[in-house]
Amino acid sequence: xxxxxxxxxxxxxxxxxxxxxxxxxxxxxxxxxxxxxxxxxxxxxxxxxxxxxxxxxxxxxxxxxxxxxxxxxxxxxxxxxxxxxxxxxxxxxxxxxxxxxxxxxxxxxx
Length: 110
What we know:
This protein is an alpha+beta fold. Helix content is 24%, strand content 36%. The protein is built from three helices and six strands. A hairpin with a 2-residue loop joins strand 4 (76-80) and strand 5 (83-84). The two termini are 22 Å apart.
C-alpha cells in the first residue's frame, strides 16, 4: 500500500511522471463574479504536508465554477492564464488567482 501511495504522489508532483494522465488535462474558462471564481485551493510548495501541487479544495455551490460544472474537488490546478503554478507556494497561487482579470483560463488535471 505504501508503494502505491508513493507512486501516486510522485505522479501528482510532475506531469512528466504522468504520461497516462496527459489526456485528462482540460482548459476551463471562468468569468469572475463579485465573490470570485467560486472555488478554493489547497497545497503548494512548502505546505504543512510537504511540497505539493495546487489542488481544488472546494467548489462553492452558487459560484461560477459550480455553474460551469467541470471543476471538481481534487482537480490539480496546473496554470492560470498561462502562468504555470508548478513550484508555487499557496500564497503565490492565491495571488495569481486574485490578480486574474475578469476572465480566467484555468488548466486543470483530474
